[in-house]
Design brief:
The protein has one helix at 3-9, and strands at 20-23, 47-48, 54-64, 66-68, 73-74, 80-89, 92-94, 103-110, 118-126, 134-143, 146-155, 166-176, 184-185, 211-212, 227-233, 251-259, 273-278, 284-287, 297-303, 305-311, 316-323, 332-338, 346-351, 358-362, 374-381, 408-416. By secondary structure, the chain is an all-beta fold. The strands form five sheets. Strands 4, 5, 6, 7, 8 and 9 form a six-stranded antiparallel beta sheet that branches. Strands 14, 15, 16, 17, 18 and 19 form a six-stranded antiparallel beta sheet that branches. A five-stranded antiparallel beta sheet has the order 1-3-26-25-24, with no helix packed on it. The longest helix has 7 residues, at 3-9. The chain is globular and about 50 Å long.
Length: 418
């Protein structure tokens, strides 16, 4: 995903838009239970779920393309559509690191079997990052045949020796009425949707890189017909700050906003409602004042990039959070569950050193089984994979779990209830 990765991404062999490096023969396995080691429970009051006690990997996986940043949205035509960047799809490259020339890709994903999909590039779109340095894809939604495609900005600070250590503002949504063939751009990094800004002082933003809650095909399972966004951020008054704390992949808090998705409202800050806490009955309280926004979840120095999916089979919301600090080493991902889109949240599983450098983890609703017990994790991994290769056999690197590569990487899981 980032500047250092760009050095190697264009010398990769061009992969097919069909699946490569896939496996359906590995035995099922459970990730080592981190709670019995350096327990997250010792540093946070997150309760362990007594309904979803863990996940199991079936060993089935498939990889597609030579790019990352995959957030599939399930459209009414039964296809998935997603952003992509910093790599190639069908020989069409995108690079979001290029400042005034930053661009992002868009792709169509056809097929119902995650082991046998076809990924087709729909081209790239230029959107300058200026006055920031990088401009990357984030929240993506197709609703009623209109595609809302979000981007956010990043800054580098060479003195930190990290990878994009400063999360900039969310720009807003470009809109397509023809499934990605043409786009209308209404916002820019300065005149951004939520009017947030930062600089090398690393003033924290609240919603820097939001993602739409995945409510299923054409948002069929939205509780109220609204689109919900979750994004990671941080507070100014951090008692235990860490260098580069609020980066593209690390932070302290998760924030939520909602809006009725239509072209007139999607880029209008006044049309949004922001989560501000709970009332005396535990129900969410919403406000039109962005200044009143409060986190739906927080874990100082342990939060980061976030996605959420509703699982109708078991009537649960699953929130995937990756703490990737310090941005260039192994990364931890954990999955929380709740009966409500706004929480409260309980721990379903903590995957320490997952990938070992997996990021942008999400659960595409299209691939959830009817009973809700089986799903697929979608992520990219190991953009600096030289850190993890076996020095005695450099060509042997396949990630951990096996098949975790710098691709659109899909891995089948089951939710364990006992």
């Amino acid at each position: 995903m980032r500047t250092m990765r760009v050095i190697v991404v264009f010398v990769l062999f061009l992969k097919s838009s069909f699946a490569f490096c896939q496996n359906d023969k590995t035995k099922p396995f459970i990730w080592p239970v981190y709670v019995n080691q350096n327990s997250w429970a010792l540093s946070n009051t997150i309760l362990q779920s007594n309904e979803i006690i863990n996940i199991q990997f079936t060993g089935r996986y498939a990889n597609y393309t030579d790019a990352d940043t995959w957030y599939p949205t399930w459209a009414s035509d039964n296809n998935l559509y997603s952003p992509y960047t910093d790599g190639m799809v069908e020989g069409i490259g995108a690079g979001s690191w290029a400042g005034p020339k930053a661009n992002t890709g868009q792709a169509k994903i056809t097929g119902d079997d995650p082991m046998s999909l076809t990924v087709s590039s729909l081209g790239v779109t230029t959107g300058a990052a200026t006055p920031y340095m990088g401009r990357y894809p984030c929240g993506s939604l197709i609703y009623n045949d209109v595609w809302y495609y979000g981007t956010y900005c990043l800054l580098d600070d060479k003195s930190l020796g990290m990878n994009w250590p400063i999360l900039g503002p969310f720009v807003g949504f470009r809109i397509s009425y023809d499934y990605g063939k043409t786009w209308v751009e209404e916002k820019d990094p300065i005149n951004n949707l939520f009017d947030e800004h930062t600089d090398l002082s690393a003033k924290p933003v609240k919603i820097g890189a939001p993602h739409f809650v995945d409510f299923g095909k054409n948002m069929e399972n939205s509780p109220d017909g609204k689109a919900y966004l979750v994004g990671h951020g941080a507070s100014i008054n951090d008692e235990k700050p860490r260098p580069g704390n609020l980066s593209w992949i690390s932070g302290d808090q998760i924030f939520m906003a909602r809006v009725t998705p239509n072209p007139e409202s999607i880029n209008d800050k006044s049309k949004y409602e922001y989560f501000t806490g709970y009332d005396e009955n535990g129900a969410a309280v919403w406000s039109n004042n962005f200044g009143e926004i409060e986190p739906i979840f927080e874990w100082n120095n342990h939060a980061g990039s976030v996605t959420m999916t509703y699982n109708p089979g078991i009537k649960k919301y699953f929130m995937c959070i990756t703490d990737g600090w310090p941005t260039t080493k192994s990364m931890d991902t954990y999955i929380l569950e709740s009966d409500n889109v706004y929480g409260p949240w309980k721990m379903a599983t903590y995957l320490k050193d997952f990938g070992p450098q997996a990021y942008f983890v999400n659960i595409p609703s299209k691939f959830i089984s009817e009973d809700g017990k089986t799903a697929w994790l979608c992520y990219s991994a190991n953009f600096i994979n030289t850190n993890f290769k076996d020095s005695t056999d450099p060509g042997s690197f396949t990630g951990n779990p096996e098949g975790s590569l710098y691709t659109m990487s899909l891995h089948e899981i089951t939710f364990l209830t006992e």
